[in-house]
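Before a colleague's protein record goes any further, I have to sign it off. Alongside the sequence sits a line of tokens, each denoting a local backbone shape. I want your independent view on whether this chain really folds as the tokens say. Where you disagree with what is written, explain briefly why. This is what I was given:
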Amino acid sequence: MPRSSLSSSSDSSRSQRSESSKFIPNMAQLQLAIKDLPDPEVWSEMTCVVAILVEKKQKLLEFTRKRINRGEHSPYRWVYQGRVLIRKRDS
């Protein structure tokens, strides 16, 4: 399966994002994108866009970096559309 690529959200064009906003990835596609996410603790942008190939077309998945309360700690985690929390060990 082809590798995906990533960028900050400021690197992606508005037209690509609107076309990809209709795309809903399945779990295998989401897991492929998760493997390419950078460490949220060192990534400087609040979002990260990962490109995956689906049926020879590039689809963009946008992840948001959020702080999660974990007792005394508040680490950053990636969140997909505010619904899927990605832990470091998941990638």
Q: What stands out?
A: The helical segments are 14-20, 27-35. Residues 12-20 have pLDDT under 50 and may be disordered. DSSP finds two helices and five strands in the chain. The CA atoms of residues 23 and 71 lie 36 Å apart.
